[in-house]
Fold Beta sliding clamp.
Amino acid sequence: MKLKIHKDRLMEALQTTQKGMASKNTIPHLNGFYLETTEEETLSIITYDLEMGIKYYLPTEIIEQGSVVVPSKFFDIIRKLPEDQVTISLNKENFLVSVESGQAFFEIKGLDPQEYPKLPKIKENNYFSLPEIALRKMIYQTSFAVSKEETKPAFTGVLFKFSSNENSDKIDMIATDSYRLAWRNGKIVNDDGIEGEYIVPEKALSQLQKVVGEEDTLVKLYLSNGYFYCETENVRLFSKLIDEQFPNLDQVIPQNYQTKVVVDTKILQNSMERASLLASEGSNNIVKLNITEDNLEITSNSPHTGKLKEDLSIYKEGDNLSIALNSKFVIEVLKVLEEDQVELEFTGSYSPMIIRPKDNSQYFHLILPVRAF
């Protein structure tokens, strides 16, 4: 194998695929990049951790065909090269890889590509399509709410739930860690009649969000034989689905409210961030909201540091109410909203709060209160 390539383009490909590499694995090949040339003047770079894989196609000047697995240190070597033009060569007898750039010359010990674990064969059926920009936004507004705890595997991913009626086909993307819940829906192009529910790991969606564009170009996503698969112009990403049962959460979502507040999104976010500085110490980050006629009073109190009280002007419907919340949860959802105003809906001091962007029915977020009264 021998090829010539620009450093910046190679770095972009390595940065994208690096996230698919196994950080701690007893199989040495999975701790590196699988490089393979094709007859179409393309270099493919593959990383795989037995759960998720990323494949990047890079147009390249190919002088001699070949393949090799290079260690993760290859990333740092390319990053530190002095010139933009890079020449990579392989000695097929001993898998020694040479990297030349300017006056710098590296030799790296590679591994036999024949010993790289076989990638899964994914059937390209059971798919749907939606615009790249819509996909990015849906992932952005839901994936942060997944659980970081492995004790409930279903909650470590985002549920894809499909439904249809006479007018359109729809997907609901739902994420929860059992203390909060993010729910976003959107229309899809459903040429293949996809239906049912699937749980996609957050790790895969996090990487997908980085590789899809911000255009209205349709992107296909496959949910087939236990795998999630997506293909963009240069990147192929696949991941095992989470084989767990996602609970029915419809019953925990309040259908009515006794108190409704409309407030400026950014003003509320800034106030909550100030309050969080003096929130009750510990994992709950407690901030209290006291709602009266046209005023939202936000207070926080740390016995060892101090306290804060701040008043915000609001529009209110319904009863006065006081509630304690985890400030971190409120701040995180406000950060992913684009609308100027949000609606806060309450059914009581010890019942879930709903946050909705005003005049946008495609998204809502539920947060459980903290018992602090």
Remarks:
- The chain is about 15% helix and 45% strand.
- The chain has three domains: 2-115, 127-240, 259-367.
